[in-house]
Design goal:
Fibrinogen-like_C; alpha+beta; Fibrinogen_a/b/g_coil_dom; nine-stranded antiparallel sheet; Fibrinogen beta chain; binds 2-acetamido-2-deoxy-beta-D-glucopyranose
């Protein structure tokens, strides 16, 4: 029985909880969907200091010239008062016709009177008796009344008992039916759930096996490296590399060359992809060292003989810093929602300081359709709250290296731990391109690991609770466009 109840409880819990296989910590979250991004000030010692000094982006010394191109009354006792024969004093007969009584008659009368006295005494005795009989009668009457009353109570009790008995029988029947039918069906449902889970586990195991198989050999990009190479993608473009694909670049002769994906078609080409999200295939919740060196897949060959399909990757903060410090650099952020709509944000100046400065971000000269998140923060927020979401001038933070502007030094207040990726978090974000990838776009705080808007977010376009399908960041040396 207890086991059955337990099972029943299990079924309920299973239904109520739906099935979430993700191993998330349960976090109590408010049910309302509100603007996120920032971490509002709490009362007490909490304070917020906006930007510290940060170097502006490099804007002089161009490397390139332009190129062409929800409650009886008592019975009035009719006591028949007997007509008293008038005492005829002495010896007259009661009836005149009968004449006068003789002395003996008188004696008789006296005797009779005597007798009468006796009879009178008797009468009072009779009266007494009658009275006591009355009493007894009353008592008996009372007794029988209370007997009736008792009978009535007993009947009533019987009725109640019957009713209870009926109830008990009904409940018994109900419980029996529940035990006989509902429980087994719940058990069947539970069994079905268990079977499904088992199937899913099997699938997952298979997938893991397949993945292991594919990773026996160190992953390598097998595309041929194009003949054309250069300092960066603009250089390659000018040298004739006009196809968007993976190229080899060497920005600085003191460091070895490396692979990047060049977009040679968007806005006249020459764009070096430094960040790319398009299918969630790469985990961006990584540590400092990974973000420093770069991670992910530069490109794929889908049968054309060269890596013309870009992968998801982060070029690496050292490399980004190094390239952007070579001269004025522009940044193009392109994004796409799950219906295929595209917008962009462009900054004519973009510089990343070196690791010793924790890769401080500097941008300027915005143009575009996505909203100036980097410099203005989220337009859903106001005052200090908005300031908290500006990225320009922020140092880079990862979950293992907290450089954000949210109570620095407090390990429980780290944007990167809550918002999913490495980024120039302030007190936290208005844009979160390195966040967690949610297929389909819309997500809720209940789906997020920490109840925060940790998706691939650009608040000024789609708000906090929409994770973009694709987003990329590309850089190019800035030059006059004519
Ligand atoms: C900042 O945000 C908090 C909560 O999100 C709100 O209570 C407060 O009014 C906001 N301040 C401003 C200036 O909008």
């Amino acid at each position: 029985m207890r086991t059955l109840l337990l099972l029943c409880l299990c079924v309920y819990v299973a239904w109520a909880g739906s099935f979430d296989y993700d191993d998330y910590d349960s976090v109590s979250v408010k049910p309302t969907v509100a603007a996120r991004g920032h971490r509002p000030l709490s009362r007490g010692h909490d304070s917020y200091r906006p930007n510290r000094y940060s170097p502006p982006p490099i804007n002089t010394g161009g490397r390139y010239r332009g190129r062409p191109s929800t409650t009886v009354p008592d019975k009035g006792r009719q006591e028949q008062e007997k007509e008293e024969q008038p005492e005829a004093g002495g010896c007259t007969h009661a009836s005149e016709q009968m004449g006068v009584l003789c002395p003996t008659g008188c004696e008789l009368k006296t005797a009779l009177v005597k007798q009468e006295r006796n009879v009178k005494g008797l009468k009072s005795q009779v009266n007494d008796l009658s009275r006591s009989t009355n009493n007894v009668y009353n008592y008996v009457d009372h007794m029988s009344n209370s007997l009736r009353e008792r009978q009535r109570v007993i009947n009533e009790n019987n009725r109640v008992v019957n009713q209870y008995t009926n109830n008990v029988e009904e409940q018994h029947a109900y419980i029996k039916e529940t035990v006989d039918t509902v429980f087994p069906s719940n058990i069947r449902v539970l069994q079905g759930v268990v079977d499904k889970i088992r199937l899913k586990i099997q699938k997952l195991e298979k997938a893991i096996l397949a993945q292991n198989e594919g990773c026996k050999e160190p992953c390598s990009t097998t595309c041929p490296i194009p003949v054309v190479s250069g300092k960066e993608c603009e250089d390659i473009f000018r040298r004739g590399g006009r196809d968007s694909q993976m190229y080899m670049i060497q920005p600085d002769a003191f460091y070895p060359p490396y692979k990047v994906f060049c977009d040679q078609t968007t806005e006249k080409g020459g764009w070096l992809v430094i960040q790319n999200r398009l299918d969630g295939s790469v985990d961006f919740g990584r540590r400092w060292d990974d973000y420093r060196r770069g991670f992910g897949n530069i490109g794929f060959d889908v049968g054309k003989g060269h890596c013309e399909t870009p992968g998801e990757y982060w070029l690496g903060n050292d490399r980004i810093s190094q390239i952007t410090k070579m001269g004025p650099t522009e940044l193009l952020i392109e994004m796409e929602d799950w219906t295929g709509t595209k917008v962009h944000a462009q900054y004519q100046q973009f510089t990343l300081q070196s690791e010793t400065s924790n890769y401080i971000l500097a941008v300027d000269a915005y143009s575009g359709t996505a909203g100036n998140a980097f410099m203005e923060g989220s337009n859903e927020l106001f005052g200090e709250n908005r300031t908290m979401t500006i990225h320009n001038g922020m140092m880079f933070s990862t979950y293992d290296r907290d450089n954000d502007n949210w109570n620095p030094g407090d390990p429980s207040k780290q944007c990167s731990k809550e918002d999913g990726g490495g980024w120039w978090y302030n007190r936290c974000h208005s844009a979160n391109p390195n966040g967690r990838y949610y297929i389909g776009g819309s997500y809720t705080r209940h789906m997020a690991k920490h109840g925060t808007d940790d998706g691939v977010v650009w608040m000024n376009w789609k708000g906090s609770w929409y994770s973009l399908k694709a987003i990329s960041m590309k850089i190019r040396p800035f030059f006059p466009s004519k």
